[in-house]
Specification:
Strand content: 25-35%
Distance between the termini: 35 Å
Helix content: 10-25%
Number of strands: 13
Largest sheet: 11 strands, mixed
Structural class: alpha+beta
Shape: globular
Order of helices and strands: HHHEEEEEEEEEEEEE
Number of helices: 3
Radius of gyration: 18 Å
Amino acid sequence: MLTRKQKELLMFIHERVKESGVPPSFDEMKEALDLKSKSGIHRLITALEERGFIRRLPHRARALEILKLPESVGQGFGGGGRGFSPSVIEGSLGRVRQEDDGVPSPANVAVPVMGRIAAGVPIEAIQHADRTIEVPPELLTPGEHFALEVKGDSMIEAGILDGDVVIIRRGENANSGEIVVALVDREEATLKRLRRRGDSIALEAANPSYETRIFGPDRVDVQGTLVGLIRVY
């Protein structure tokens, strides 16, 4: 049996992972549950972990995997007693996933890798694809996608680490709060959370060591939004 706050946090993490492919930061959890400090979030996460609802992913800053949901929500995700498949794919490149009943899932999709993207200060612009990466279809959304290798540590509190491969849905529009690939001054690409502040655009890191950068709308072009990531060990 979960307390109301424990259930609220679990569902908030679940919905955020479904939407963006990565868990929320501790600050986002604190704001969502209207708590005054992160210590309350730490206690709730520990309680959920002890009850078997979540698992902390080792050697990754504040990365979480949901193992199950409360019975009142359903057995696992999607019903039928099947467990949750996290959006972080671990060491599964080129492999066809098997469902619990032993039937192979649909074939992986080849997504072009467009070079490196900075999770730090902007670096080179997006390049032309020189290879592809095999991506499970459940990680993709409707539309065109491309992949980028992450360089830097500015998004670690969003669960995005140096060396990860992010999956991006191509598009020029993004909602405030979404993690996007942004092209600054048409020559430097960066991976940041986009915030709209009146007529300005803020590119916000998920690491307190990095400052939020503010630009006029004519200096930032959205190239796509984050839908998932792949990590290989």
